[in-house]
Write a structure and sequence with these properties.
single chain, mainly beta, 5-stranded antiparallel β-sheet, 2% helix
C-alpha cells in the first residue's frame, strides 16, 4: 500500500483540511485491479461547502469510481474529523511506471462571521451562516502518485491466458432441470 498526504488550514485556526491518497496492492501486475482511495479529512468544527472532487488523470489506464462516497468520523492526532472517502478501480495493460496525477478538490471555507448581530449565527448551519460570513474558495491539489506496474511473471505458462485475480467464482444457472433434458431438446444456461 502506498499513500501520500496534502493539507490546507481552514477557519483561521490550527485545524487543517487534508487529503490522503492510497493505492493497493503496492506491487501490481498488468491487468490487475488496483484500488485507489482518496480520503478528505474535514475538521469537525470547520464549515466547508460546495465540495467538488475532480478525479485524477491517468494515461494508458482505465479508472472507474467504485460505489458511492463513504462518510464517517475519525480522530487524527487528537483532532476530530469528518471523513469523505472515494475509491476507484484502476486497470492498465502496460508494465512500467503508472502516474496518477492532476486530481484536485475545490470548495468554500466559511470563516466565522465578524458581525455580532448575525441573526443566523445560532442556527450553526453553513448555508445560513454563510450568508453573512466570509466564504473563501479553496483548491487543494491531490498528491500525484507513481506506482510501478510489473509485467506478467516470467514463470507464467507461455500459452495460458493471463488473469490476475485473488479469487474467481463461476456459476451456472439452467432454464430447465438439466437432469430431465433429453437429447435434441433445447436448454439455456447462464454462466
Amino acid at each position: 500500500k502506498v499513500s501520500k498526504t496534502q493539507e490546507i488550514k481552514v477557519n483561521n485556526s490550527n485545524a487543517k483540511l487534508f487529503t490522503k491518497v492510497a493505492i493497493s496492492p503496492a506491487l501490481p501486475h498488468i491487468n490487475e485491479q488496483l484500488i485507489y482511495s482518496i480520503k478528505l479529512f474535514i475538521p469537525r468544527d470547520a464549515k466547508v461547502d460546495n465540495l467538488e472532487l475532480t478525479p485524477p488523470k491517468i494515461t494508458n489506464a482505465k479508472i472507474i469510481q467504485l460505489n458511492k462516497d463513504q462518510r464517517y468520523s475519525a480522530t487524527v492526532q487528537g483532532q476530530a474529523y469528518h471523513v469523505l472517502e472515494r475509491s476507484y478501480a484502476i486497470f492498465t495493460d502496460r508494465a512500467g511506471p503508472l502516474i496518477i496525477k492532476d486530481g484536485y478538490l475545490r470548495g468554500s471555507n466559511y470563516s466565522k462571521s465578524r458581525r455580532t448581530n448575525d441573526p443566523f449565527a445560532l442556527l450553526n448551519d453553513p448555508f445560513f451562516s454563510g450568508m453573512l460570513s466570509n466564504a473563501e474558495p479553496f483548491q487543494l491539489a491531490i498528491e500525484n502518485l507513481t506506482i510501478d506496474i510489473l509485467p506478467i511473471p516470467n514463470d507464467y505458462p507461455e500459452y495460458s491466458q493471463w488473469l490476475p485475480a485473488s479469487s474467481i467464482v463461476i456459476t451456472e444457472d439452467w432454464s430447465d432441470n438439466i437432469n430431465e433434458l433429453k437429447v435434441g431438446e433445447i436448454g439455456r444456461a447462464n454462466v
